[in-house]
Structure formats: C-alpha cells, structure tokens
Prior knowledge:
The complex is a heterodimer. Chain A is an alpha/beta fold. Chain A contains eleven helices and eleven strands. Chain A has helices at about 30-45, 70-80, 85-105, 120-130, 155-165, 165-175, 180-185, 200-210, 215-225, 230-245, 245-260, and strands at about 5, 10-15, 15-20, 55-60, 65, 110-115, 120, 130-135, 140, 180, 190-195. In chain A, strands 1-2-3-4-6-8-11 form a seven-stranded mixed beta sheet, with helices on both faces. In chain A, helix 2 (about 70-80) crosses helix 11 (about 245-260). Chain A is globular, with a radius of gyration of 18 Å. Chain A starts with a strand and ends in a 9-residue tail after the last helix. Chain B is mainly alpha-helical. Chain B has one domain (about 10-80): Orthogonal Bundle (Non-ribosomal Peptide Synthetase Peptidyl Carrier Protein, Chain A). Chain B is about 50% helix and about 0% strand. Chain B contains four helices and no strands. Chain B has helices at about 10-20, 35-40, 45-60, 75-80. In chain B, helix 1 crosses helix 4 (about 75-80). The longest helix of chain B has 15 residues, at about 10-20. Chain B is globular. Chain B starts with 7 loop residues before the first helix and ends with a helix. Classes of the chains: A alpha/beta, B mainly alpha. The interface between A and B is medium-sized, with 23 and 17 residues.
Amino acid sequence: MEQFHGESLSWELKNGVVELALHREPCNEIGGLTLEELEKFVSALDSFKDSAHALLIHSQMKPGFCAGADLRELYHRSLELERKEAVRGVRDYLERIHKVMNAIDAAPLTTIAAVHGVTFGGGFELALVCDLIIADKMARFCFPELRLGLIPGFGGIPRLKRDLGNAVVRDLLLTGRSFNATKAQQIGLVSQVVSEGEALRAARATATQLSKFDRRTAAAAKEFIKPIPYEELRREIDIFCELFLQPAVQAGLRKFVESEDAQPYLP
Amino acid sequence: MNEIMKTPQQTLEEIMNLAAAHFKVPREKLTPDDDFFKTLGIDSLQTLDLLTKLENHFHVELPDYELQGVSDFRTLASRIQSRL
C-alpha cells in the first residue's frame, strides 16, 4: 500500500521516500488505535523494499513528535480488568508494540525521525528505533516513566544503551529529567539540530542524499552496525509487567489522569 | 571568548522579555513576582517550551525538577543565574 490515511497516522511513498506522519490529538499518544495503524504500516513496510530507500517519521501535531503511551487509555483499561487480566493485557500490548518497533528498527531502508517539541517516553522510543534523529531546537526528550513507578516499555533502555554510554542512560532514566536538542546532540543521540520548524525539511534533504547510495550496501551497513538487542528487549517486557502490579503504578497513573493540567508532564 | 557575566537583574529582564515575546503578552504586563502560569496563561507543556527557550538563550542546562514549585520570574531568574 503506497498510501494510507488513517485516524492517527498517514503514510505516502514518493520518489523513493516513505513519509510516515503522526497526527493524533493532542500529541500522538500511542493507544490501541495508533498501535493498530502502526501494525498496518509495518505490514506494508515489506512492499517498500524495492521502491524506497528511506523512511521519514514526523509529527503534524504542534506540541511535539509524540508524548508516548496513551496513559489515560492504559489507566481506564486497567480499571476495567482484574489485576492479572490487566497485566496480561499490558503484556499483549507491549509484545505488539515491540514487534512494530523491531520491524522499523530492522527495516532495510534508512530511517530518519524528524522531531520537534515533546519527544517523551514511547515517543522518544519511536525516535530511537530510527537510524538518524534530526531535531528542531525546541525538541525536548524525556523518559518520565519512573515518575509512574515504571520503566520505559517500548524498548527504550536497550536501544538507548545501544547508542549511548551507560552513565548517560542512568542519568536520563533515574532522574526522569527532560533535556533539549542541543544536549541530545552533545551526547550523540541527535545527528542534526535545526531551527524551529525545519526538522522535516532537513530530513527530506538527508533522504535525498541517501538516494545516491546503493540500497543493498546501505542495508548491509545498517545491519552490521545496528544490531537489535532482542534479549534485553524481552527482559524489558518482563520487568515492566512485574512493576505494573505495584500499587504505586495505579496511584501514579491516577494522579496523571486526574490532573487538571491539560498536559501534566512536569514532575 | 569571555562573556561578561550577566547581573541577576539583567537575567530577570531577559527572561521576562523572552517570555513576553514567545507567548505574545505585552511586556509591560509582566512583573518579577508574577505567577507566570497565570500571567502568561500557560500549562506545563508550554512551560517546557519556555524552559527550552531559556536554555537555548542563556546556553545553560536547567533540569526541569529544579523548576518544581517555581512559579514567579524572580525565582526562575535565580535558578538560571546559578548556572551561568
């Protein structure tokens, strides 16, 4: 499928570049619907192998790239179910999202995340599966999960460990603090920092540059230098599900959901 | 190149100028002890925007937990001043 327009995302293949646009209000929170559409996208990925060399992921929402998992949906669903059932539901959700993330991570295309604004939690993890991250200078990254009594669940820690030093990973994870694009570039996470509103343009320019190289060589190089940490990703799901049973998690989720702030992101 | 250290008053003025311009609020409506959430009419997401603007402007890194409980320009300025 060369083109798709869904409720939470759309994609289009044009001149060898697949552009995946996220557009779910308010900031592309990943819930059941987004997951279904991401699965649809991953099913189509295989068909791009011969016609595309690059994949760009970007957001059309003003607040940012993606605020992560839809915590309101997660909270309300967990209320409806017995604890054991809720954990089973969470595991199923994580297995599905990991399948999506792993497929994008391993795609034979060169993948670029063009990010701005809020790039938090699962949104940060979505950016991390990409080969390159291009950020506008107002982008902000964060793993806030510890505030909820959880760890990142979409593959964040293993992928961050793959790309960065362990001390930086500990800082980001254990403090839950957010940091800006300049810092992200300093620590080696972001490849380019551009002016406000310029990330997609810069990503498109990069995708044009990529078209000059042999596709098979680029895919081989990527496979060689970017192994997928499957074992640690499995372990992450187990730890997340163990932690999800803690009363502190429900309390943290409730606090988030009941907050009067439209976007209660600050600790 | 050595930059001349900003005074706390300069830092405070620059923060209020920046906030007024970014959130399109008349500068004269802002005073140092204002609750900026109210005066600027911003939520926590927009506060992150302001934090990023300030970090970029002053070339500092300010962990967001240092802003916990901070709601006036004067205290915000002192947090930034301590990192200049």
